[in-house]
Amino acid sequence: MQKAIVLFGHGARDPQWADPMKKLQAMLMDQLPHVNVELAFLELMAPSLPDTVDCMVQGGVKHIQVVPIFFGKGGHLKNDFPVLMAQMKEKHPQVHLEATSAVGQWDAVWQAIARQIVQQSQ
Amino acid sequence: MQKAIVLFGHGARDPQWADPMKKLQAMLMDQLPHVNVELAFLELMAPSLPDTVDCMVQGGVKHIQVVPIFFGKGGHLKNDFPVLMAQMKEKHPQVHLEATSAVGQWDAVWQAIARQIVQQSQ
User: Fold this and answer.
1) Of A40, A38, A39, A42, residue with least CA distance to A79
2) How far is A87 from chain B (nearest CA, A)?
3) Domains of chain B (ranges plus CATH)?
4) Is it the case that residue B112 has pLDDT exceeding 70?
């Protein structure tokens, strides 16, 4: 498995919080059978993003795409996340490590939300 | 304006964090011109959910639908949110106040996210 995706979420105390991310993971594993899809968290849940990336690199992954599962662009994405990415790139210079924008920046996501709300309001 | 929707998010220190929620608000105001759509936050940002609901009730709104803009079902949705809803219902018994499930429970949202990730991975 040379290519991998990390779904990177905030994390929470309640284990159930991660269930939708696990569902997304299952959907992606189904649609991208040749890509390794794992979860990672900023805080309160394990594994951390660096731990997940370390494991993938040890497993021979050469290309890692991190997808931040965050709605808004606040301190976590502006400050914490770039620092983590820089540290991981420095640690694993041989790996192609990149990040997409956060899902909250994707119009299609808000369009899907708006569609549901409009349907429920009529 | 007798009907209203409150987009209820977590909140953050960085004002830019709320931008996608404001975009959703604009989309909904466009698609539901007869519904009052406002934002409210659990913490770190104003207005709070009770303040927004109080204002709406003062403005004559009779039906309020709260949409939690949260990905996961953790302590905020399991504990904080039901307490807020119960307090508001007690304070405004004449108003029909209801909540949808959180957007993170909606399959269409995760399908939209998966679709984008798959497109970006190919």
Assistant:
1) A42
2) 24
3) 3-120 (3.40.50.1400)
4) yes
